[in-house]
Amino acid sequence: xxxxxxxxxxxxxxxxxxxxxxxxxxxxxxxxxxxxxxxxxxxxxxxxxxxxxxxxxxxxxxxxxxxxxxxxxxxxxxxxxxxxxxxxxxxxxxxxxxxxxxxxxxxxxxxxxxxxxxxxxxxxxxxxxxxxxxxxxxxxxxxxxxxxxxxxxxxxxxxxxxxxxxxxxxxxxxxxxxxxxxxxxxxxxxxxxxxxxxxxxxxxxxxxxxxxxxxxxxxxxxxxxxxxxxxxxxxxxxxxxxxxxxxxxxxxxxxxxxxxxxxxxxxxxxxxxxxxxxxxxxxxxxxxxxxxxxxxxxxxxxxxxxxxxxxxxxxx
Length: 316
Description:
With 316 residues, the protein is an alpha/beta fold. It has helices spanning 15-26, 42-50, 63-68, 108-126, 154-163, 181-197, 214-226, 265-275, 277-315; strands at 28-35, 74-82, 85-93, 140-145, 169-173, 229-230, 237-240, 243-250, 253-256. It has one domain: Rossmann fold (3-Layer(aba) Sandwich). It starts with 14 loop residues before the first helix and ends with a helix.
């Protein structure tokens, strides 16, 4: 029928190009929250991941100041552009987390912040003007685990269990250069066992379709086997054997941040920036936010029913 009208049957094939142009023009947003105790290299890793300096004005507190400080929420926003594609990256830092003597419910500030962003988005999309809604929902949480313990601490378990239904949690084994390769393997296995034991739902990489090529399937399996990502961060350029790279110099040798034999830094960066950023946003929208939205509507409906019952009882 379309051909009888003289229209080319392939005309709708340009739809992907139209969507691409419109989306690129609008730009993209991504919000990442980092959690973990002080001294695990969170700031250094974030600067290394996105090749920027978000913490140049940061003041390093002494032990007494850290103990007396409550958990804070600090928001850093930076615009990044690559090949004409614009990204508004927001990093949410949580200074003071895990620093107090009593850390009971120290994750509450993080939990409240995530809820506040869901609430604001729900209000915006329920309002009259929905054309320019700004998406500040948290799409990913990098949770830093100390390499100096025997797996997860009680604070780690409590925090991840409080957040796992609201945000995509990606566990990170910090300062991997403080461990031998054998210790890294054992600690990864221990952490995976405890995550399963305590019923913590971390971010699940999507299953590969049957028509995907073997290289893609292999890469996805490597990502799954690498959890938690054992990472090293450094913003310092070092030189060794005629090469310059970001790394750390020790008396026994040199550690390269982007060397896959030394850490999972490249795996984590490629996963966040190149291959799974959109999936993290999709899971946030389709699962975490939809659960919040359904709960809000259910509560609103319950309130309406209760109000009607009160009116009926007063009038009867």
